[in-house]
Each structure stands twice: as C-alpha cells, then as structure tokens.
C-alpha cells in the first residue's frame, strides 16, 4: 500500500548522501560499459603465483591513473548469486533473503533501474551482452522490465562445440563476436557485459590455456583451476580493450568493472588459505567474511589522471547512485538503498543478505563482533557496543524495507519526477535472423 511505500521512502530519503562536488559529472555523456567479472574476488588483484601475476591486465587498470578503485568493496548477494548482483547494481535494492528476485518477482515487478533512468534522464541506449540463454535467471523478462532495449544472448552468437563451456560462450568469443552489435548501438550507450568462463567448476579447454601460466597445486581442483580461468578472463578483457582503443570508443567511455560474488566457497577457503599466505589452522568466520571482497573500479580514460585506490567500505548496493553521480545524473528522487561511495555522507556499514555486516572497524557475524584490526573477537566499550547495536538495527531495517518494497511491488505506486513507467511489451529480444 501507499503507506508502506511512505515508510520505505522516509528511510531512503533520510539516508541519502549528497554527491561529492569534485566527482559529480566527471563522466557526463560518456558511454557506460558495465563489465561483470564472474565469480571474481578481490584477492585475485595483484596476486602472483609462481612469480607471475594472475590478472596483469586488470591490475594495470586497478593501478591506472584514471581509475577510481575500491579495495574494501563487498558483494552482498544471497541465493540469487549473479542475478542478485545485477539487481543491486542496477536498482540499488537488495535481493531476497531466499531465492532469486529475478526468478520469483522479476516478471511482474515494477523496476526503476539504470537502463530506464539513464534513457529518460540522459538519452542512453541500453544493451546486455551475455553468452548464455536468455531465460537463465529469467533475464529475458527482467531486462524488459528494467527497460533494456537490447539483449544479445546466446542466440546471437555461434556457441557450438568448443566455443562454449558450462554457462555459455567463452569470454574471449563473447567480447569478439559482440562487436558487430556493439558498433551499431546509438551513443551514448549503457552496455553490460556478463562474462561466464570464470564460473565453478572453472573448466577450460587446454586450447584456451596460457602455456606460460602455471597455477597452484592445492589438491582442490576448484581452487587450482580458479586461477586459470581468472587468467583467461583477464586476457579476454585485454583483447577487448585493444579493440576499444583502436576504434576510439575507449576514450569516450566509462568502465564499471566489478566482481559479482565469491568464486571459492567458505568450505574451500581453508584450501585457499595457503595460497594467500595464511594458515588454515585457526580459520574463522571472520576470515570467510573478509574474503567476500570483490573488485570495483571506475575507469574513466583521459580524465586528468586523478584516480586512486579508495579504502572506503561499501557494497554492490552503492554502485548505482555512485555511477549516476559520475554521469551527472542526480539520484535524489529515486528510492535507492545504497549511497554514493565518493560522498562524505556515504554510510560505510555494509550489510550482508543474512544480516551480518562489516564496518571499517568491525565485522559482525551471527551477533559475534570481531575487530578488523586483530581478526579476533573484539573487546568493546559500552559506547562501541551501543554504536554496533545501532548499526545492526539499521542493517535489519534496511533489508526488511527493501524486502517490503520488492515483495509488495511498491514501486508501482511511486512516480519520481519525470519517470515514465517502463512498457516491457515494447521490447523484443529475439534474434533478428528469424
Ligand atoms: C549464467 C551466469 C551464472 O548465465 O550469469 O550465474 P551464477 O551461477 O553465478 O548465479
Ligand atoms: Mn555469478
């Protein structure tokens, strides 16, 4: 009902963070590439194995002078995995506590998502490039409700034989074979690339392996192969960027590069520990939580070289308002649970979907508070306890209001200024060949 919507709106309004003036609009009018690095965790960045970087190309972006990167950025997905990440990134609302929002609510809900907002506010064309079938995670329906104009799914590419692995077209082929569609998009565009090759169980044909890259030998094949497919993903990006630089698209764009969620699960982390130079003996929930960091980078080529690596704490929920402000589009009128990572008012309490949370100083797991300094259970003053109680209350409230918004489809009652409701029936993603 409308009063339920009011409660949500009151909360998001109260938490709104105004933009950082020095960042607002610095990517205005540029094309947007959202590059979804499948199962990609932050520890891969700058990681060396047998003296070799696993992801040299991404590392060069990470340290590049026009890149704003975050090293305390967390995924916040639940069971909806990739689809939860997509939902958070493009709506700044949470996934559900059970199942996938895309799958359960995505066909019927009202969305006020990045593609429709950017189309209506700044004239952006929108498209998704993905090498899996369109129905996976119910994307064919959800994307229409989000206002995506084009969805170049598996049917647009030759995915036969060894061109695919478990979740679809290999990344190098996706980037290469999508170019003929990308080139026809009206600029400015908002284009999302969802990679798949770096996905459990991290299979790669030997023909795609870099003979010069030798992985670890932990005895856990998922851990060992994870580095091999991450290395492949890195090479695929390098090839794509070579193309973009050649055509000049590179300099006219902003790149949002992020990891969607963990690739190595908690149960395998002890095997990973030795690779990370840690002992698995006293491995705790705290250590698992720290590994939920994923990369987030905003690369803005030729933008004056003021980039840096920020240690601000944040999560996937925060990406949309941050991106909008970089593009010079105010986020104020929308219902969004995240806040601009560059804003001095940004809230650094990062909620996980199960109500655990991380702050710059503490990690809270099932009500146990760990100190980020020591990694051990924290000894807390009364004032610190009080603050952490407040943080927990906020996390719970935020998650439950997001659930209320989505479960009850409350956005259908919400009319932000100038927002025209998306008409999903306008879009037809079927392959133009038939
Ligand atoms: C498949 C891909 C994988 O299309 O996006 O999703 P995940 O299994 O990571 O949720
Ligand atoms: Mn995924």
Question: Helix amount, in percent?
Answer: 25-40%
Distance between the termini: 43 Å
The gyration radius over C-alpha positions equals 21 Å
Associated small molecules: (2R)-2,3-dihydroxypropyl phosphate, manganese (II) ion
What does this structure look like?
- Residues 30-329 form the Sulfatase N-terminal domain.
- Pathway: Cell wall biogenesis; lipoteichoic acid biosynthesis.
- It is a multi-pass membrane protein.
- It is found in: Cell membrane.
- With 434 residues, the chain is α/β, with parallel strands linked by helices.
- The mean pLDDT is 97.
- The strands form four sheets. The chain has an eight-stranded mixed β-sheet, with helices on one face. A four-stranded antiparallel β-sheet has the order 13-14-15-16.
- The radius of gyration is 21 Å and the shape is globular.
- It is built from 13 helices and 16 strands.
- The structure holds (2R)-2,3-dihydroxypropyl phosphate and manganese (II) ion.
- Manganese (II) ion binds at residues 38-39, 81-82, 260-261.
In short:
This protein has 434 residues and is α/β, with parallel strands linked by helices. The protein is 31% helix and 16% strand.
């Amino acid at each position: 009902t409308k009063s339920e919507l009011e409660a949500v709106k009151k909360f998001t309004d109260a938490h709104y963070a105004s933009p950082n003036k020095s960042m607002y609009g610095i990517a205005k009018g540029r094309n947007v590439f959202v590059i979804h690095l499948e199962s990609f965790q932050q520890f891969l960045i700058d990681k060396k194995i047998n003296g070799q970087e696993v992801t040299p190309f991404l590392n060069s972006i990470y340290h590049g002078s026009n890149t704003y990167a975050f090293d305390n950025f967390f995924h916040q997905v639940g069971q909806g995995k990739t689809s939860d990440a997509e939902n958070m990134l493009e709506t700044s609302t949470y996934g559900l506590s059970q199942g996938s929002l895309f799958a359960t609510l995505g066909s019927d809900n009202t969305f006020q998502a990045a593609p429709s907002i950017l189309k209506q506010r700044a004239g952006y064309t929108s498209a998704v490039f993905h090498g899996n079938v369109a129905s996976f995670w119910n994307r064919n329906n959800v994307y229409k409700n989000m206002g995506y104009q084009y969805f170049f799914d598996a049917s647009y590419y030759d995915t036969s034989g060894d061109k695919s692995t478990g979740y679809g077209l290999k990344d190098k082929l996706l980037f290469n074979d999508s170019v003929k569609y990308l080139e026809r998009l009206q600029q400015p565009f908002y284009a999302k690339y969802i990679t798949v090759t770096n996905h459990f169980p991290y299979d790669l044909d030997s023909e795609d392996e870099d003979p010069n890259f030798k992985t670890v030998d932990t005895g856990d094949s998922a851990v060992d192969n994870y580095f091999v497919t991450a290395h492949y993903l890195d090479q695929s990006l390098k090839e794509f960027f070579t193309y973009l630089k050649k055509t000049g698209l590179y300099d006219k764009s902003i790149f949002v590069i992020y990891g969607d969620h963990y690739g190595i699960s908690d149960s395998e982390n002890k095997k990973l520990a030795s690779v990370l130079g840690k002992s698995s003996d006293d491995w705790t929930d705290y250590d698992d939580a720290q590994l939920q960091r994923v990369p987030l980078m905003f690369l803005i080529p030729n933008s004056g070289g003021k980039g840096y690596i920020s240690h601000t704490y944040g999560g996937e929920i925060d990406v949309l308002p941050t991106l909008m402000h970089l593009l010079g589009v105010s986020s104020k009128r929308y219902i969004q649970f995240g806040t601009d990572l560059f804003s001095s008012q940004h809230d650094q309490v990062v909620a996980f979907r199960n109500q655990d949370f991380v702050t710059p100083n503490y990690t809270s797991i099932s009500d146990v508070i760990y100190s980020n300094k020591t990694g051990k259970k924290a000894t807390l003053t009364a004032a610190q306890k009080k603050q952490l109680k407040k943080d927990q209350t906020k996390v719970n409230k935020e998650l439950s209001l997001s659930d209320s918004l989505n479960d009850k489809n409350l956005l259908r009652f919400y009319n932000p200024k100038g927002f025209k409701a998306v008409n999903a029936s306008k879009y037809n993603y079927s392959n133009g060949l038939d």
